[in-house]
Amino acid sequence: MSIFEKIVAGEIPCHKVYEDERVLAFLDVNPISEGHTLVIPKEAAETLDALSDESAAAIGRALPRICRAVMRATGASAYNVLQNNGSAAHQVVMHVHFHIIPRFQDRGLGIGWEARSLDAETGAALAEGMRKAMGNGQ
Ligand code: 5GP
């Protein structure tokens, strides 16, 4: 049982921000910036790709609302939404979660973003592979 399942079950306390039938949001215990909030499905899926359509829809509905609340309560006018999947991608708690991280002048998410250019051949092959994986054909 992950720590977030224990929070959902009420076995571990949290500073609750939002709750509905499928979604829970609460403050991160080690915030990067003031108002750093975690939004999780109550369903115990480890990574986003394993989440049911029902929980995905509920999260999608709740996220913008919670983002607005975080901005209003903190006064932040910018923020990042971060969602890690797999330990190689910095996921520590193996239960799907979205970080909402307010950006202030001196605090917020640090991003190392090494962008490269996408060549046309690689892009076409990758997109085709993904369309096929989605059962979409062209
Ligand atoms: P990850 O690296 O898995 O994307 O992030 C996990 C996040 O969960 C971290 O930011 C960490 O501070 C937070 N976290 C871990 N344990 C607890 C806990 O017991 N309570 C709360 N509120 N946050 C937690």
Description:
The protein is α+β, with helices and mostly antiparallel strands and 138 residues long. The chain has a single domain (3-110), classed as HIT-like (HIT family, subunit A), CATH 3.30.428.10. It is 30% helix and 18% strand. It has helices at 3-8, 53-74, 120-133; strands at residues 16-19, 23-27, 37-41, 78-82, 98-103. The protein has a 5-stranded antiparallel sheet with strand order 1-2-3-5-4, with helices on one face. A hairpin with a 3-residue loop joins β1 and β2. The longest helix has 22 residues, at 53-74. It is globular. The chain starts with a helix and ends in a 5-residue tail after the last helix. The mean pLDDT is 96.
Looking at CATH, the homologous superfamily is HIT-like
State the CATH class. Answer: Alpha Beta
Count of DSSP H/I helices? 3
The CATH topology is what?
A: HIT family, subunit A
> How do the strands line up in the largest sheet?
1-2-3-5-4
* Largest sheet report: 5 strands, antiparallel
Radius of gyration over all CA atoms, rounded: 17 Å
Helix content: 25-40%
Give the tags:
138 residues, alpha+beta, HIT family, subunit A, globular, binds guanosine-5'-monophosphate
Structure, briefly:
This protein has 138 residues and is α+β, with helices and mostly antiparallel strands.
